[in-house]
Amino acid sequence: MPAASPPPPCTHLGSQCRAINVTIRVSSDLANPKAGDHEATWLFGHTQHITFRRLWRHEEDLFARATLHIPCRFLEEENGTARCKAHGFSGPAPAQSEPGPQPRRLGGDRFRLVQSGELAEQGLERPAAPKRRLAVLNANPCATAPCRTTDNQLGAACCRDLVIEIMCDRGWRRQELLIRSRKPPYLCKVKRDTDESLEAEIISACDYLDAEDRISCTLHGLRRPDGREAKPDLCRRWPKPTLEETLHRGCVFAKPQEPAAV
Questions:
Q1: Which of 1, 61, 155, 246 has the fewest CB atoms within 10 Å, counting from its CB?
Q2: Comparing C-alpha atoms, which of 192, 153, 178, 158 is closest to residue 67?
Q3: How far apart are CA 144 and CA 222, in angstroms?
Q4: Is the distance from CB of 55 to CB of 64 less than 8 angstroms?
């Protein structure tokens, strides 16, 4: 088990106790505009604990400034007073940090999607069903799955947690420690694969989920004005478990555990 990272070099309680500002690589495939739009729409849907800000391009990459509303694991609070468990200083609790309104469902057939590298309002279409078609089973195996996210929320776990790439040069030591100090499991499994970025798992539910059942995807079956599927590509494929992939607890696609040898 890897050793816990040291605390960030803070000198006082402040906004960093509640949230941090980061740059996220939204897509690395703008050479393929269709794939880039799908990647960006998927990421920009996860608004529960992320405030998405300005989008910009650099070569074939799309980036966004964002605020991760995940508190520091060293923050301790009681009766309006806060204390840093790492450095010992205390004082009035920093102001709460919550994402502001970022609606992706605008009512009826209106949604906000990423189109050509920009977040834009679009009217979507539902193609008419063919008059004659073969009878097929169209049940969603995830609808009643007992899957759970790591914060123990039941249902639609794949739509509630995700892996993001946070731009953080190897020399940005304070920024890296601020990222690594976030409270698990809301931000965890931080690892460095390159000199320029960190990979992390974050819990932040998707706003394209139906407001009532919080499981069904409201983009399902809809098309953009240019005829493309509105639902991102990666959301239209069932998981394919591999040795490297860890599925959520209760996932219907997880292979049953082999009984222990006696």
A1: 1
A2: 178
A3: 23
A4: yes
User: According to the model, what pLDDT value does residue 245 have?
Assistant: 64
The two structure tokens encoding residue 141: 């195996």
- pTM (2 decimals)? 0.89
- State which residues of the chain have pLDDT below 70: 1-3, 30-31, 33, 129-139, 241-245, 256-262
Q: Tell me, letter by letter, the H, E, C secondary structure of the chain.
A: CCCCCCCCCCCCCCHHHCCEEEEEEEECCCCCHHHHHHHHHHHHCCCCCEEEEEEEEECCEEEEEEEECCCECCEEEECCEEEECCCCCEEECCCCCCCCCCCCEEECCEEEEEECCEEEEEECECCCCCCCCCCCCCCCCCCCCCCECCCCCECCHHHCEEEEEEECCCCCHHHHHHHHCECCCCEEEEEECCCCEEEEEEECCCCCECCCCCCCECCCCCECCCCCECCCHHHHCCCCCCCCCCCCECCCCCCCCCCCCC
Is the Cα torsion angle 216, 163, 151, 51 positive or negative in sign? Answer: negative
Q: Please tell me the predicted confidence (pLDDT) of residue 4.
A: 77
pLDDT of residue 36: 84
Residues in the chain: 262
pLDDT tens, residue by residue, 13-31: 999 999 999 999 998 876 6
Tokens of 103: 């609606």
What is the structure's pLDDT at 1? 41
Quick one: tokens of 107? 């009512």
Residues 6+ apart with CB under 8 A from 36: 27, 29, 30, 62, 117
Q: Would you say 43 and 61 are in contact if contact means Cβ atoms under 8 Å apart?
A: no
Q: What is the pLDDT of residue 129?
A: 66
Of 138, 99, 125, 105, give the one whose Cα is nearest residue 214: 105
